[in-house]
Each structure stands twice: as structure tokens, then as C-alpha cells.
Amino acid sequence: MQAVPPPWADARPPAAPRPGPWPVVAAVLTGCWIVAVTVFGQAAGWLVDQLLLGLGRDRAVWLWPAVSLLTVVLVGTPTVLLALLPRSAAVRATGRAWLVGVLLLGLFGLLRAVPPVHHEAYLAGLAAMAVLAALVLRRLARRPTTPAGTPPAASRTDGPGAVSPPTHGTDGPGAVSPRTDGTDGPGDSSGRDAGDSPGATGPARRARFRPGPVTLLAMAAGFALLLPWAWLGALGGLLETVLAALAAAALGAVAGVLLDSAFWDRFAVGDQPRPARLVLVGGLVAGVALLLIAAGAGQSGAQLPALVTLPPAGFALATLHAAARRRHPAGRIPAGPARWLVGLAAFGPLAFADPEEITLLLAGSRDVPFWVAVAAGAGLAVALLVAVTYGVLLARPRGRTPRRRTAAVTAAVLLVALAAVDAGPGQPGLYGERLFVVLREQADLSGLPAAAPGRAGRDARAAEVYRRLVATADRTQAGLRRDLNRLGLRPTPYYLVNAIEVDGGPAVRAWLSGRPEVARVLVSQRLRPLPAPAGTTRGTDPAPTGPEWNIRRIGADQVWSQLGVTGTGIVIGSSDSGVDGRHPALADGFRGGDDSWFDPWDGTRSPTDAGGHGTHTLGSAVGRGGIGVAPGAQWVGCVNLDRNLGSPAHYLDCLQFMLAPFPLGGDPFTAGRPERAPDILTNSWGCPGIEGCDAGVLRPATAALDAAGIFVAAAAGNTGPWCASIDDPPAPYPDVLTVGAVDAEDRVAEFSSRGPAPGGAPKPDVLAPGVGVRSAMPGGGYGTLDGTSMATPQVAGVVALMWSANPSLVGDVDRTRRLLRETATPATPTYRASDPADACGGLADITGAGVVNAYAAVRAAR
């Protein structure tokens, strides 16, 4: 029988000098540099993304390609030197593996130029690019077949992704050549353990798809790493999930080629078997390589948890390779373990977390960012536990690899546990985005008959507007709705904007975009569920003892005391995160009935609010006890924000409800009651592109509300002091009164958004106090907040006082806006760079007409 040297045997001549310690020191320093640069670059890139989002600026398409290319330059230079200069084969293999990893990072990072709203396109690109990279690496790694009898350790290449040639030496009768199939060693074609006879039964084709025990243990580790994501995350749509699986599998294929048998054997070379060296040193090197792959895998935000969970898998892979090498010292180890373990580990953050929800906008509560962080921490703990467990069981000098049956049972148990976790405490199902289809024809609201002054005239106008809108939608949507129902796409029709929301991905979007009656198709965001409620935001301030400073500043308390007007007879509608209907400052003002509350997100039957924003804003409009401008007015409410995010469809749900309220469960098309529409709407929200809106999507809605005689106030936004930052609907529209914020000294708040609006129109229209405003919070408490959101309801309250003082003014929106502007008081502008020359095109684009004056406006209205 011909002897085959073990893989750790040194193939060089005995007289060759051993390398000094400096290559190892250089490798350690390079590894630390790679980790520092990569982690800092990925975190900084995400923070810049979030900063631009918070400031309302356009997304920088060049950001992530620039970050990736800079990382390639900073990291690639030392890795090239490490891959070429040292005499140590292990150090050169280290450098080459890291060099390939950083090149993959640069390549994958280019894909982040794809907007996050098109997540399916990004995942498809990642899958295709990773498959191409795996094929290229595999082709580059091919080498000529080794002559018979040549020891494997001496014949292997030391480059990253190198594939060892098969060994044709025989060990005696019945021995067969090593395979590259799914088995774990030569002659193990049926997945049998070492005790089984070589050349065992089973056709080779069937054996190719039958993993051996080491690959099964890698699958078990991958299932374990998926457990936190199945528990704490939620899947997207069907296509999104399939593409995430393909991308993860492709990343696993890349890891299988990069961390192949030749790579691991470089860390087992020596005079004696050293599994500890293989696990510790090889695991560290592999972990850094996986860190680089993880940094490039996933849209902005989704790669951050992978930076935590994927690198520790390097130690588990090293342990599995040591076990496989012990079982088959002369054979070539397959790439199956790396493919399965890395692929499953990458699938978690790619599939179970929406990158658009990994945002600082949701970081103030136990929302998606919190649960992603928990999942990443749990994944890190699981990865370390797997590495330690496998190390203790498999990498000991006397350790033994379990039989295939034992490994298969372990993998099966963890797979069943994964399914049970997802179906039990997890969030089973698919939660993909929907599509918002805007039709070309919108209702013609011109030529409305002249209305009588006051509420009767307003109600008649609202009824006619409602009739025209519904008739247009029914006529133009009929054929499209039939086709959508036949395809099972669950259409939800709208009339305030002639539009339909449907299920579907890129293919459905392309089909709809080609239909002649369709103007455009937008993505309507859908939040994925949380493993536990985010919790209710509560206030900690004491209850006010009199009119708040902002109430006194605009003179609302004088209107109450001197003019005897509190807003009686007027109804204000709030579209926001909800309202705590039991709050003592708000409970008595609720209009009641079956058509005063609507929650399209969760279907709640009575006014509730977990976020707190809606309770605070409505309190500033109608709250009692000194917090509201019009405490005698009534209110109705609708939930258009869930966890501080919305979508075009849900914003429209609430605006429709405000034009023609309907009973719970009623059809907005047939059960609407325009005569029950509130008089004034306060809207402290905006719909940016990340939520699916474009500049004009809600324009027909505000035009219809204006035509119906419903006064619409909207927050300017908190993206100042940038000029032209009033750009998210509905604030830029000419038929809404856009409200900015001032502080107690009438200085424009630096965060208050500025004009001009798109098209050049001056905005904001007026200002109101928005810094340090105390109002109601859920649970009966009070809190102090800043923002144009706080200013806007105060203006709605002033309009309520004006219309209460002069009921004939109800529905006369144009005259009301004019009176507000004419009676406003001057405000002190602020500038982006303390430079008066930076006036955003004109003073009116910073201060508008000035700060609203409730006392002067009510007197003028009378």
C-alpha cells in the first residue's frame, strides 16, 4: 500500500529556513486595519444616509459606491503586499483571501446605488453579481491534475479560492478517488462514516446530492443562526424572499470557493497535527474574510447586523474543516460546509429585515432598529456558542466526527425548531410592499355651483365634490379592477385621488405601467410586524395650571376672555398617529357617533394612540386646560401613521375619511357622509419618497378638499435651515396653508423648513410657536416637543376660533387664508449660515406672512 503524507506535512526541503515572525505581525496588523476600516466605513455610510433622510435631502446615489471604493483603496493596498511578499504560504493565503474579500466588497457596494424602495432589483443584482464572482473565482483556482502519488498538501495552490486537484494515489484495493460532491471525503459516496467500507453502494449521481456529516453539521449551524431572525424579524413579499434566498445562496457559493480546502490546509501545515492552530488562526483569517463579504451584502442598514453575526462563523468553519480532515486525511474536502453555513447566515438579515425600516426615524422606541440589534446580538451569541461547541466536540486531539445519521438528526431538529419559532413567537407570513396605481383621468371639479355662505353651503359643495369624485373613479377603474381581481391582486380603490392600491412586485408594476389608463405606479410601503408592541409614548411633564406660553403668545387666551370665543360649533379633523380619546384634555371634545374615528392600519374601534404624536398635536388645537387654541371645538380622528411611517394609500385613506366620513366597516364609495366632514384639517406629517410618494401624488386630494370648502393646514417640515426644503407632500401644494415654527422670541426655528416650494411659489404661508410646546400625551400625561408639527395645529385652532366667531365664514377658505396673512405679526428670520444674503430667494420663503395672531384674526373675521 502506498503511503500518503498527512496534509500538515511540510513539503519543502528540510534545509529550507523557517520564516521569521514579521510576516505574522504584518498579517495581524493588516487584519486589525481591515476590521477598523470596514466597520467604520459601513457605520459612517449608514449614518450619512440617515442624516440626509432626516434633513429631507435627496439621497446621495454616489455615497455607497464611494465608500466601497475608498475601502478597497485603504484595505486593498496592504492586502496586496501581504499576498505577494511573505515567504510563508499561510500568510500569503491570508493576504489573498482578504484581497478577494475586499474586491468583492467594492463590487457589491456599487449595487447600493439602487434606491432602497426597489429592494427586489437590488437583491436580484446581488445574486447575479455573487454568482458571477463565484464562477470567476472557481475558474481562476483551477490547476492541472497532480501526478499519481503526489501528497495533497504539497500540490495545493495557496491562493484564495484555490481548488485542490484530486489525488489519484491508491490506498489499496477498493479505494476510490476523492470527490468534490456533497460528501465529506473519498469513497464516502453514500455519506457513510469512517467505519463503513470504502467504495460503498449508491450511484454516483445520487451520492452527489447526499451531504455527509460535516456538511450536515454546517447546515445545523446555519439553522441555529437563523433562529433569532425567525423569532424577531418578518419576511417581505414572495419575490423579495425568493431573491433574498438566491442572493444568500450565491454569497454562500462565493464563500465556498474562497474558503476552500486549499485555504484551510495552509493553517494545518507543520511537523505535527495542529487542529487548535487551524481553528484559532484559520478561524480568525476566515472571520475577517467573511466580514468583508458581509459588508457588501445588503442594502444600507441591512449589512450592519451581518457584520456582527457572519464573522464568528469562520471559527465554526475551521472546526468543521478540522473534523473533515481528520476523517479523510488524504482526500479533498468539499465546499459544502461553507456554502451552507454562510448562505443560511446571510439569509437572515437579507430576508427578515426591511432596510428601509432600519432607520433612525424609528430608533426612539422598541421598533425595527431595536429588534434588529437584538437579533444581531443573539446571532453573535449563537455563532460563538456553535463555534465553542463544535470546537470542544470536533477539534480535540481525540475528538470524533458524529456519524451521518447523528448529524442529520441534529440538522433536522434545528430545522423543525426554526419552523416552530417562525410559526409560534415569530411573525409568519409574507409582508411585501404594495403598489399604488395612479390613473390618468382625475375628476373634473371645475364649474362647481356657487355655494351659500356658512355650513349649509359648505355641505352642499362637499356633497357635489364627493359625487363627482366617486363617479369618475367608478367609471375609469371598472375594467382595471376586474383584471386585478381576476389575478388575485387584492385591489383597494380610491376616489379622492383616482387610484388603486394592489399587491405585486416589479413584473406587476411593469404590466400596470403599460396600460393606457394608468399614469404611473408607485411603491406603497407596508411595515413589517414587530415581535412585541413598540410601547406607548407617555409624557412626564406636570399638567399646566393655566394657558401655556404659546397660547398667550398668539393671543388665544385673549380671544377666550375678551371676545368670548372658544371654537364652539367647529369640528377639527386630525390625521396622525392616533389620539388618546380618554385623555382628560381631549375626552369631552370627541364628536362621537359611528363616523368620527377611522384606523386603516390596525382597525381599532375607538380613539387610541401609541406613538403620542397625534395626541400632542390635537391637544394643541382643541385641548382643554390651557394647552389648546380652540378648547370649545370638537374633533374627529384618523390614523395615517403607524410607528411614525406611512404610505400614499394610508395618507389617502384618512384624507378620504375627512371629506366623507363613513361608519366602521363601511365602503368609502357608497357610505360616505360629506355633510359630516370636519371643517378644518390639521396635518403634521409629510410623505417623502422613501414612503412611496412623488411630488404630485396627493395633489388631487388637497385640490378636492379645497373645492369642498374644507380648510387644510399642513406642517412645513423640520428639514431647515436648508432652502427649498418644503418639498414633501402636502406642504408644497398651493391649496394648503403651510405652517412653519418660531420660538418664544418669534425667531424662526432653525429646523423649520424653508421655501421656495417646487415651482418657485413662496412657502411657508404663516408661522406659529413650535419650540418647547407642552401638550397632551397618551395615558393622561403631558410632554414638551419641538417641531412644525406642534405649530400647525395651533393655526388650525385659530381658524376654528375665526369660524366660530363668524359662522358665515365657514367654507370660505380663500378669505380665511387672506385674513390670517393680513393679521400676522412679523417674525425674525434665521439663516443657514447666519448670512442674510442666504434668504432662500426671498424673506417670504423663511418667515411667510409672519406669526399668526389669534386675537387680530378673530376680530378681522367678525
Outline of this structure?
This protein is α/β, with parallel strands linked by helices and 862 residues long. It has two domains: 22-142 and 210-423, no CATH class; 549-861, Rossmann fold, CATH 3.40.50.200.
Q: How is this structure best described in words?
A:
The protein has 862 residues and is of the alpha/beta class. It has 2 domains: 22-142 and 210-423, no CATH class; 549-861, Peptidase S8/S53 domain (Rossmann fold), CATH 3.40.50.200. Helix content is 45%, strand content 7%. It contains 26 helices and 13 strands. The strands form 3 sheets. Strands 6-7-5-8-9-10-11 form a 7-stranded parallel beta sheet, with helices on both faces. A 4-stranded antiparallel beta sheet has the order 2-3-1-4, sandwiched between helices. It has a two-stranded antiparallel sheet with strand order 12-13. The longest helix has 33 residues, at 22-54. The radius of gyration is 33 Å and the shape is elongated. It starts with 21 loop residues before the first helix and ends with a helix. Residues 1-16 and 144-207 have low confidence and may be disordered.
How are the SSEs placed, and which strands pair?
Elements: H1 22-54, H2 63-84, H3 89-109, H4 119-141, H5 152-155, H6 204-207, H7 213-232, H8 238-258, H9 261-265, H10 275-296, H11 303-309, H12 313-327, H13 336-352, H14 368-394, H15 404-423, E1 434-439, H16 455-486, E2 492-494, E3 499-503, H17 506-513, E4 518-524, H18 549-553, H19 556-563, E5 571-576, E6 597-598, H20 613-622, E7 634-639, H21 648-659, E8 680-683, H22 699-707, E9 711-715, E10 737-742, E11 766-769, E12 773-777, E13 781-785, H23 788-805, H24 813-823, H25 844-847, H26 854-861
